[in-house]
Amino acid sequence: MRLVKRKGEVFFPYAARPEQQDLIDFVSSHVGKPLCINATTGFGKTTCILAALLPSHKRIIWAVRTGNESDRPVEELKVVDERFSRHLFGLSYRGKRDMCLLKEGLDYDAASYLCKKKMKECAYYKNLADFSYSPEGPLLYSELLRMARKEKICPYYLQRRLLPYASVIGMSYNYVLSDAGYSLRSTIPFHDSFLVVDEAHNLEQAATNINSIALKKVGVERALEEMAGIDDEACGSALKALLEVIERVEGESRVDMDGFLDTLEMRGLAPKFIEYGEQIRADRLEHGLVPRSSLYHLGSFLRAVEEKSSSEGVVMIADDGGFEVYDMRVRGMLSELWGQFLGCVFCSGTLEPIDGFANTIGLADYEGKSFYMPFRDENVRSYVITGISTEGETLSRAMADRYVRSISWFLRQGRKSAVFCASYRIMGDLLKAGLEADFVERQSMGGAEAKNMLESFRDAEEGCLLASAQGRFAEGIDLPQALDSVFIAGIPFERATLKTTLYIRYYMSLYGAQRGRYYAYMVPAIRRVSQAMGRALRGLEDRALIVCGDERYTKPEIFRLLPRYFQTSAKTIRYPPDAESS
Hints:
Blueprint: H1 18-30, E1 35-39, H2 45-53, E2 59-64, H3 71-84, E3 90-92, H4 96-99, H5 108-118, H6 123-128, H7 141-151, H8 155-162, E4 168-172, H9 174-177, E5 193-197, H10 203-211, E6 213-216, H11 217-227, H12 233-248, E7 253-255, H13 257-263, H14 270-286, H15 294-308, E8 314-319, E9 322-327, H16 330-335, E10 343-348, H17 354-360, E11 367-371, E12 380-386, H18 397-411, E13 416-421, H19 424-432, E14 439-440, H20 447-459, E15 463-468, E16 485-489, H21 498-511, H22 513-533, E17 544-549, H23 556-559, H24 564-569, E18 570-574
Parallel strand pairs: 1-10, 1-11, 2-4, 2-5, 3-4, 5-10, 12-17, 12-18, 13-15, 13-16, 14-15, 16-17
Antiparallel strand pairs: 6-9, 7-8, 8-9
Helix pairs in contact: 1-2, 11-12, 11-15, 14-15, 21-22
């Protein structure tokens, strides 16, 4: 299928650079096949892909990692609509947790339950029946919510009513990857829609998280409290035995799922726990409390254990915090999904190696291509420092001192800097060794606190942001004109936990020993590095110093995975870097 633009139809609202036109042409020419697009951060891929797909007059479902990111394609659609007066409509779709006006601040399960039970008597839902609205332009989540508050109508079902009019719908991965999207398919048939998966390098992790389920010790304790008022000796005894098992757990271990069910005599009890949990939720709702139940979650966990106990690629892991059913079967699950759409586009600034990405998400017949920002040579300076490394279980004080000296040299080179550490553990070691920073991420930092700190960093004339390369600041944030240098301290490999080991082994069973470890361990780590580097380069005129502080970056198998702009300008310098010419 080759998409041909009709005469007079223009959907790119800016002056397209040659590389942007290449991307538009690539999508237009191959839109009937799955497309894998690696386009450097700041390339403008959102606008390019919209420009290529909008002339088809088919709906575009734009899947993003989090609900907060669902506004991005709609913001670009606004620009297109205002520039060309195309009368296009789009919206950023959000779940009941974000949309419920009846009781705000609920989690997803509680909000869904409340809506199900109270819909018929909800004044906001009733008011929607007499409300008339004709879309006049794209609506962001905040705009739709504001309208609903003003009119005293249900924002969730207002957006459902508007879906058929939308040319572009931004929504989180959950609505595509999980059962949450089934109710949408009658309104926005997938088979007649294009799917665009943004930041697609997160797909594997997102799919794994959706299909896995954890049972925490605190949840079992609360379930036992709920059980106190229920006369069921079998369920009560099984629950007490479960808590005793958790309290005896030391370290990590793999659990035989069938043995778990039989030893604790829990096989077949899932429906009972779910039933009791339903009763508790209903009672709490009647008394004006949040309708949640730990017994209900316990039942859901046990149901997953029973359903997945004989599945290859699913493991159960225990630690002193509880249990997790960890489902690693990403490729099989995703491969069945992509054919449900008219066409799929997977895009990211860190999708390379494209063949590896396509393989792990179950794509057999696809077109892939990388597009690069033509940064001028003088705009990017990049270095690898040898003589330092975070390799090993611990970071010695001597090595930490070397890092502090290297970072001190680095901070003298720029005005606004970010230091991304391989892990929170490494970051803590460097702080203990005397590293100082103006803005420091904490692992337990809440969303509001993180947002405020980021805004303060943006507004500051100068300073250093210290964060984890595996944390919230290393990916998905824009720092235009606020960052001129990035230091990567170490390589952000996954910690050597039992879960990581089992994940690597499973991939080795699928792809062979060498390639499996490469896909499961090496590639994700270097993608994190590339994402962190991209915080400093969002546009062609940006200038940045980028330093990789770990001699392992000189290894060919690692170096070739780094962004092209880093590779083309990289120089190797020895520790201490302040003794080298900069």
